[in-house]
Design goal:
binds calcium ion; elongated; alpha/beta; 8 helices
């Protein structure tokens, strides 16, 4: 699951990013409303977390403009205490929920899960390839009915490969998805994670699912 956080207070933004990554989400951050709006338009996210008070374009305006562009990604607004007006305007503008700052991290993740569950009622909550199953809400992974324990990054890579099953996924795409935009493209970090993943899910005598495409990237085939 991919989340965009738009928050101009870097400390808060990085705290949210780090926390959500530990909870198996992939997180992009924008530090102003204009960048955030453009990223939300360009990329596909599962949830958007928007601070209301932002430079260049505030969270309410972003919400309104995205909805008029027919982008229906669930939106969680971060408001400050006692700004009831913002909450009402935010929900009217098309936001799905709001959270008052300061908040407990557990509350943020609980609300994100609720938004995902609501969104996923129209969609499947499980991804399957051969005998490999991913539960998108609980983040549990099974191969041949046996639970496999993955780290958050391994999980994020596997989820992305399954979403794109039978398609070649380049290393650059994987880095963009699992890390943020400014990662060194020359790094071999993706290969390191793929090897770890293979050791966990592609053990003999099970059928090999992750295949290397020389010089390009990887493909997950059923
Ligand atoms: Ca702010």
């Amino acid at each position: 699951m991919r989340i965009l956080v738009v928050e101009d207070e870097k400390k808060v933004a990085n705290f949210i990013k780090k926390g959500l990554e530990e909870e198996y989400f992939s997180v992009d951050v924008a530090y102003n409303g204009k960048d955030g709006y453009e990223m939300a338009l360009r990329e596909e996210y599962d949830v958007l977390i928007l601070d209301v008070m932002l430079p260049y374009k505030d969270g309410l305006k972003i919400t309104k403009d995205l909805r008029s562009e027919k982008i229906n990604t669930p939106i969680l607004l971060l408001t400050i205490k006692d700004s009831t007006g913002d909450k009402v305007t935010g929900l009217d503008a098309g936001a799905d929920d709001y959270l008052t700052k300061p908040f407990a991290f557990e509350e943020l993740t609980a609300r994100i899960r609720a938004l995902l569950r609501r969104k996923e009622t129209q969609k499947t909550t499980e991804l399957k390839v051969d005998d490999l199953t991913l539960d998108l809400i609980s983040h549990k992974v099974y191969r041949n009915s046996k639970e496999i324990f993955l780290t958050p990054k391994e999980y994020a890579i596997l989820e992305y490969l399954i979403h794109n099953k039978n398609k070649i996924v380049s290393r650059t795409k994987l880095i963009e998805h699992v890390y943020d935009y400014h990662f060194d493209p020359e790094t071999n970090i993706v290969d390191v994670y793929i090897n770890k993943l293979r050791n966990k899910i592609d053990q003999q005598p099970l059928k090999q699912l992750i295949h290397t495409v020389r010089g390009v990237g990887y493909i997950l085939k059923d």
